[in-house]
Amino acid sequence: MNRRELLGVLAATPLFARSASAESYPNRTIRIIVPYPPGQASDVIARLLADRLTSVFGQPVITENRPGAGGNIGTETGARAPSDGYTLTIATAALPISKLVYPKLSFDPVADFTPVTLMTITPLVLVTAPRLGVNTVAELVAYAKTNPGKVTFASSGPGTSHHLSGELFAALAGVQLVHVPYRGSAPAHIDLMAGVVDIMFDNIVAVAPHVLQDKLKGLAVTTKTRAPLLPNLSTMAEAGFPDFEAVAWFGVLVPKNTPTAIVDRLNAEFGKALTSPDIRKKLVDMGAEVAPGTPAQFEQFLAADVARWQPVVARANIALE
After folding, report:
1. Residue pair 170/202 in contact by the 8 Å Cβ criterion
2. What is the total count of domains within the chain?
3. What is the CA angle 88-91-96, rounded to 5?
4. What's the CA gap between 195 and 190, in Å, rounded?
5. 3-state helix, strand, coil in the chain (%, to 5)
6. For the residues 284-309, what does the mean pLDDT come to?
7. Quick one: what percent of the chain has pLDDT higher than 90?
8. Is 244 helix (H, G, I), strand (E, B) or coil?
9. Over the chain, what is the mean pLDDT?
10. Boundaries of domain holding 168
């Protein structure tokens, strides 16, 4: 077989086709699925990076909001997409939680994806409705103990980190809280400010503007150290809960079996975008810690988060349809 015949045979094989596809990637529009409504932190960060990657790739990079079912509707869309690098999915802390609390999902929120990169890590903030009249975590606990079953906590959906953070707080504080799930953070914030619900754990990126404008009262952050954006807020450990630690995070996934060359290209470009001075500043100003890494590091991070939330899910006996 001469060289021309050999090349013809190779070109007909799937492996060669995948390689050639990776070399020409991207040559058309890339979409980033955000499994939450517009205006949430995941959406803000996705749009910020989509604009940068459009100029880098020379192809449109667009965001597509597909909210619902605690992020599972959009996430399943991403998992079912072709493994060609043209459909990316924004992952949040809800992803490993979904693996634990939705036993009947038709897809695996972790195993059906290939990790690309972790993007940011941010604290959650425990916020209250101003009319509740509590100014510290201790005052909130005291109020909840004298009003058992009457304090409501909002979340952006069942099975999210907001939800499990509320369950963890209730267990550690020994209080009864009533969970009120919403289809995203934005509508929850409206009801919080109106006093319809009482408290919420939410991403600092989403709630800091409301806290700084005194529309919501911040009580504490959920990381081990204070947040530079809201330095006057204590940590949950300082407030008397040393075993309470939770973070919000955002990452990028592609469907499993996406060619390694494409995954590596995406990882490199996201890393450059995240660490560019202008985007890093915007993210830090929003309260986020920029934390890109390798696909393998993100895979390990996901596994650790599953292990983190598993006992919380078991203790609260959470199982969702």
Report:
1. no
2. 2
3. 135
4. 9
5. 45, 20, 35
6. 93
7. 71
8. coil
9. 90
10. 123-235
Calpha distance 238→225 (Å, rounded): 9
Question: How far, in Å, CA of 279 to CA of 285, rounded?
Answer: 10
Q: Can you say whether residue 2 is alpha, beta or left, with left for phi > 0 and alpha for psi between -120 and 50 degrees? A: beta
Half-sphere exposure of 286 (CA within 13 A, CB side): 21
Q: Which candidate, 171, 172, 165, 158, places its Cα nearest to that of 207?
A: 165
Class of residue 28 by CB neighbours under 10 A (exposed 0-12, middle 13-18, buried 19+):
exposed
Residues 132 and 191 in one domain: yes
Residues 207 and 260 in one domain: no
Per-residue DSSP letter, 228: T
Question: Is residue 59 a contact partner of residue 26, using CB atoms and an 8 Å limit?
Answer: yes
Apex 167 CA angle, 161 and 168, nearest 5:
85
Q: Which two tokens stand for residue 304?
A: 């650790």
Per DSSP, the residues of 273-309 read: HHHSHHHHHHHHHTTPEE----HHHHHHHHHHHHHHH
- Report the C-alpha gap between 28 and 84 in whole angstroms: 11
Specify if 135 maps to a domain.
yes
